[in-house]
TrEMBL record:
Disordered: annotated span: 80-100
Domain of life (superkingdom): Bacteria
Name of this chain's protein: DUF7379 domain-containing protein
InterPro entries attached to this UniProt entry: AB_hydrolase_fold (IPR029058), DUF7379 (IPR055803)
Length: 461
């Protein structure tokens, strides 16, 4: 089994606990291995080697804090060599000394069995969303309750739907419970959902769409959504967060021919033209950013346990990456690996993402009204300026370890949130709620903002 070690366990206690709680996720998928090699003593004996053996069944990765930023690396840091390297660099006038480092987490794990990487991605999906079964089939379910607490029915609902329908579509690493929880977190959000369910102008049904976000492409999610809403009449209003917006685009623009309803959609932080976070050449740094987001979300949103998957999901993806490629560094194999994670590839902002390129050409099967909530996160809090390490602040700043070439909300490029297609694309954004350069608004707290709730109310009458 994996072994965990931290030099400062108090500071990242939640992150370490989340990693340990999900240590068994791939248990049935690992190659056979000698349990004696998993002991802490065995791990420490191998600390002189900072790299993994290409033919070994046991791999190691480390999460290291460098000047306040968490980064994932292959192997185990060879800490005893660091002072010597620093002295040699200073004498030779070479690169600057190594940054201040703290080893937060060392995890040792067996390789996955051959041809089991896809199964591992599916296992992550099922752990992220308990509503998803082994088939990874999506589910359409009814939201009930109010005025402050809301419950999702355990059983699926089926159309054709009539009257007025409100649909909530969650994003990557999330689920409907977490998305509803963001509305429950504020009195404005509670009031909105309560009015949608129980008010004088209530919807005939308020639904949530549960879907796998990693092992299934947004295109296939959209196909399922199109089937579920076949023959629906009246009005369908949609609130889509993050990747959910890309699903809704595919549904309404490609698979919406059987939909007979008027549609209006509010996208919140949605990668309408993909996200740089899912680009293959940025994967190692993206995994590091995800872990940083986990600690940031815990402190700023008080997200704990299942509500904060950012604390553990990067570590499990590290295991898949290292099994397939043998390293976290960028290699040509990463392109193939990203293809093994259709949920990421489908929203990868790269020039040869043919899925997205085809979507952006049109034509469209329906004519929805689109509205957008967007932001550029730029906190002035010195304790949370890790984001600067993953974004180019000036055009010439783009370096190998930076993910975003410009404005972003920590997960999605801001420019992508309003970029539907080429200049002659048949659909347009009707209205935008732009938080601008905001020190507080970021990808995971749009629905906690009064301005977002007011914007939804105005545009989903």
């Amino acid at each position: 089994m994996s072994q965990f070690d931290a030099e400062d366990p108090r500071r990242y206690r939640s992150l370490i606990k989340a990693a340990e709680d999900h240590d068994d996720l791939f248990k049935a998928l690992y190659v056979d291995h000698d349990d004696r090699m998993d002991s802490v003593a065995g791990l420490r004996r191998r600390r002189r080697s900072a790299s993994n053996s290409p033919d070994g069944n046991i791999l190691a990765a480390s999460l290291v804090e460098e000047n306040g930023v968490l980064r994932w690396y292959d192997g185990v840091p060879a800490r005893e060599e660091a002072p010597q390297r620093r002295r040699r660099a200073r004498r030779a006038g070479g690169p600057p000394p190594l940054p201040d480092q703290t080893v937060v987490l060392i995890k040792e794990f067996p390789r996955l069995q051959p041809n089991r990487a896809a199964a591992a991605i599916g296992a992550i999906d099922m752990r992220l969303n308990s509503a998803i079964g082994v088939s990874l089939q999506s589910h359409l379910r009814q939201l009930r309750g109010g005025p402050r607490k809301f419950v999702i029915d355990a059983n699926d609902v089926h159309g054709p739907f009539k009257g007025r329908t409100l649909l909530l579509v969650h994003g990557t690493f999330s689920n409907a419970v977490n998305m509803v929880g963001e509305f429950e977190a504020t009195t404005d959000g509670q009031a909105f959902l309560n009015a949608a369910l129980n008010g004088p102008d209530k919807y005939d049904q308020v639904l949530v769409f549960e879907h796998a976000t990693l092992a299934v492409s947004p295109v296939l999610n959209a196909l399922e959504l199109g089937r579920a809403f076949s023959g629906a009449t009246g009005a369908v209003h949609v609130i889509a967060h993050s990747r959910g917006g890309l699903i809704v685009r595919w549904w309404l623009e490609a698979f919406g021919a059987a939909l007979k309803a008027e549609t209006r959609v509010v996208f919140a932080g949605s990668p309408l033209y993909g996200t740089s976070l899912a680009a293959p050449d940025k994967l190692q740094h993206a995994l590091s950013l995800i872990s940083n987001i986990g600690t940031f979300a815990e402190k700023t949103l008080t997200l704990v346990g299942a509500a904060n998957p950012f604390l553990w999901v990067a570590g499990k993806l590290v295991e898949v990456v290292m099994t397939v490629t043998g390293t976290l560094a960028h290699t040509p194999l990463l392109d193939g690996l990203i293809a093994l994670v259709p949920g990421l590839f489908g929203q990868s902002q790269i020039s040869n993402n043919y899925e997205l390129n085809l979507l952006r050409l049109g034509p469209c099967t329906t004519q929805p009204a689109y509205f957008v909530v967007k932001s550029n996160f730029a906190t002035v809090d010195p304790g949370w300026q890790f984001w600067k390490n993953f974004r180019a602040l000036r055009g010439a700043d783009l370096a190998a370890d930076q993910i975003f070439p410009g404005d972003n909300d920590l997960v999605v490029d801001t420019g992508s949130m309003t970029n539907l297609g080429e200049t002659d694309f048949p659909l347009k954004i009707r209205d935008i709620e732009d938080f601008g350069n905001d020190p507080e608004v970021w990808h995971c707290n749009y629905f906690r903002q009064k301005r977002t709730i007011d914007f939804i109310r105005r545009n989903l009458p």
